[in-house]
Amino acid sequence: MEKQLEIDLIPRGNGFQVEGISTKVEFALDFFRLLETNYRDRPDRDFTDSFDFGYLLKQATRERKKEERKSEDEPFKPTEKILTTYKGKHLYSRTKNQEKYIQSFLNNLITFGIGPAGTGKTFLSVAMACRFLQNGIVDKIVLTRPAVEAGENLGFLPGDLNQKVDPYLRPVYDALNECIGFEKTQEYIALTKIEIAPVAFMRGRTLSKSFIILDEAQNCTLAQLKMIMTRLGRNSRMCISGDVTQVDLEHGRSGFDRVVNLFRQTEGIGQVFFGKEDITRHPLVETIVRKFEEL
Questions:
Q1: How close are the terminal C-alpha atoms of the chain, in Å?
Q2: Which structural domains are found in the chain, ordered by start?
Q3: Of 9, 86, 105, 258, which one has the fewest beta carbons inside 10 Å?
Q4: Interval 6-40: pLDDT, tens
C-alpha cells in the first residue's frame, strides 16, 4: 500500500498515521474512504484480500485522472487578485501555472519559477513582493541577479553600486515601475525598503522579514545558489526564477537545474514549471521559443 500510494503508513494503536506529500496524502485518504465504504457494502467482505485493494486503487486512480482532465479542460478563471497598481489597475494571473505561482508564494517560504522567457516569472514575483511590502508582511524587498552578460562584454561600468547593477536588473525595475510607479520605487530605494545587490554581495548576511528575488538564476553556480538560499531569515520569502535554456555560463557551471532537482517535493519549497502556453508577451514570442527548440 505504501509503495502504490507513495506515502508512509505509521501504525498508531488500532489505526495508522498517513505521512507524505499533501496531494498524495489527500488521494490516500480518499482511497481509504472508498475502501471502507466498499467493505461495508459488499456481502463477501470476509473474503476481501489484496486483489480487491488493487482493483479499488485502480478505480480511484482512474477517477482522479478524470477529475484532473476535466479541470484542465475548464476555461481558466483567476481567483486571487495579486495587486492593485498605482494606476488603479487590478493584476490577476493569466494562466493556470501563473495562478500556481501566486499560490506558492502564499504557501511556501521559497518558490522556484522555471520556464521560458515571457511567462511572467519576474513580473509576478515583483508584484507579489510589492503586495507583501504594502501589507506589512515584509519590511523590504531585496533584488539580486548574477552579473553575467548575455554573450557580450560590457567592460568597466562607471558609477556607484546601484548604477553598476542597473543594467542587469532593468527587467526588475520595469516591473517595479509598473506596479508601484517610478516615484515610489525611487523613494523605497532611498529608504532602503528596496535594496539592489549583486549575488556576490550577499555573502554573510541574514535577510529577515524580507522578500528576496533572485532573477536569472540559471546563471548562478551551485555555490552561489547555496549561498543565496541560506540567507533566508525569519518571516522572509524567497523567489528563485530562471530559464534553463538561456544559460550564459560555460557549459556545466550552472547549478540551477541541479538545485531544482535537489529540492523537488521539499516541504516549504514550491516549484512551478512554466511552459510555452504560459507566454504572455507578444504571440510571436511563443513561436520564436518553439522555433529555437527545433534547432
A1: 45
A2: 2-73 (no CATH), 81-293 (3.40.50.300)
A3: 258
A4: 888 888 888 888 888 877 888 888 888 888 888 88
